[in-house]
Amino acid sequence: MLAQVATPTLVLHADEDAVIPFSSGRSLAAGIPHSRFVQLDSRDHLVLQYEQAWSRAAAAIQAFLETERE
In this structure, are residues 32 and 60 in contact, taking their beta carbons and an 8 Å threshold? Predict the structure, then answer.
């Protein structure tokens, strides 16, 4: 069903996620047409504000929203 997703999609995934394997995030993004995938350098499943990955995640989300708004 992923191939049927027609909504702009951004997939963020921590490269050392302790809950969901990194390969699952990649597969998810690969299955959604025209999705964007951003790798985050983190071990956490949820990136927290004090991590270095936070600024990368925030920048990716902002860029995605600005691009999709156009």
Answer: no
For 38, list phi and psi in degrees, rounded to 5: -125, 120
Each residue's pLDDT, cut to its tens digit, for the chain (70 residues) gives 999 999 999 999 999 999 999 999 999 999 999 999 999 999 999 999 999 999 999 999 999 999 987 7
Is the pTM for the entire model greater than 0.85?
yes
